[in-house]
Structures are given as C-alpha cells and as structure tokens.
Amino acid sequence: MRKSYRVKKEADFQLVFEQHHSVANKMFIVYTMTREQPTHFRLGISISKKVGLRGHERVWVKRRIRQSILEFKPKMRSDLDILVIARPAAHDQDMAIIKKNLEHVFKLANVFVDEETE
C-alpha cells in the first residue's frame, strides 16, 4: 500500500482518536473519521505488545491486515481516515479468519460504499 494511503503522523492518529466513531469485535477496534479532501481513504494500523511480544509476530498480523484491506480497497469509501487496532485474539489466526473479522467490523463502521447508491 502506498504511503499516501497511510496515517503515519502521531498528530493524525490523535485527531482520529479525538474525533472518532468507533466500533469493535473480538479481534479488532476500528476508528473512523470523515475527511474534507476525499481523494482516497487513509489507513493506520496499531498492534500492541499484548498481541505478540516479538516484533515478527506483530508484523505477521499487520501484513495480514494490510493484505485484507487491499482486497477490500475497491469497496471502501474514499472520504475516511481509518485506524485499525488489533486485539490479542488476532494473534495466531489465519488469513481467512482475519479477513472475515475485518469485513465484519468494517460493515459495522460503515466503511464500505453502499452498492444501492452506485
């Protein structure tokens, strides 16, 4: 995923946390914030040491989240900043389960474009 699609700065993360709409399920917490310049969505991923003590475990989960979001990219709204926070239940899950849980929490957060309005 290109850098323009990422929320990288601490100030941007804090802005989404302060002006957020959040939803959660067993594996993920998702914060969303509507932006003024809707060129494309931006994504931030946060994985704490509670998910995996070793760095390579956290990177493993982060890669699967990023790959799932790449597959969802055509269906996602372009006017959002999205933060995905992984919970410890996401550790040691395979790609299909991570993708299924992300899709569930994104539907709750209204991240996908409505197909009826297209």
From TrEMBL:
<comment type="subunit">
    <text>Consists of a catalytic RNA component (M1 or rnpB) and a protein subunit.</text>
</comment>
<dbReference type="GO" id="GO:0000049">
    <property type="term" value="F:tRNA binding"/>
</dbReference>
<dbReference type="Pfam" id="PF00825">
    <property type="entry name" value="Ribonuclease_P"/>
</dbReference>
<comment type="similarity">
    <text>Belongs to the RnpA family.</text>
</comment>
<dbReference type="InterPro" id="IPR020568">
    <property type="entry name" value="Ribosomal_Su5_D2-typ_SF"/>
</dbReference>
<keyword id="KW-0540">Nuclease</keyword>
<keyword id="KW-0819">tRNA processing</keyword>
<comment type="function">
    <text>RNaseP catalyzes the removal of the 5'-leader sequence from pre-tRNA to produce the mature 5'-terminus. It can also cleave other RNA substrates such as 4.5S RNA. The protein component plays an auxiliary but essential role in vivo by binding to the 5'-leader sequence and broadening the substrate specificity of the ribozyme.</text>
</comment>
<dbReference type="InterPro" id="IPR014721">
    <property type="entry name" value="Ribsml_uS5_D2-typ_fold_subgr"/>
</dbReference>
<dbReference type="GO" id="GO:0042781">
    <property type="term" value="F:3'-tRNA processing endoribonuclease activity"/>
</dbReference>
<keyword id="KW-0694">RNA-binding</keyword>
<keyword id="KW-0378">Hydrolase</keyword>
<keyword id="KW-0255">Endonuclease</keyword>
<dbReference type="GO" id="GO:0001682">
    <property type="term" value="P:tRNA 5'-leader removal"/>
</dbReference>
<protein>
    <recommendedName>
        <fullName>Ribonuclease P protein component</fullName>
        <ecNumber>3.1.26.5</ecNumber>
    </recommendedName>
</protein>
<dbReference type="GO" id="GO:0004526">
    <property type="term" value="F:ribonuclease P activity"/>
</dbReference>
<dbReference type="InterPro" id="IPR000100">
    <property type="entry name" value="RNase_P"/>
</dbReference>
<dbReference type="GO" id="GO:0030677">
    <property type="term" value="C:ribonuclease P complex"/>
</dbReference>
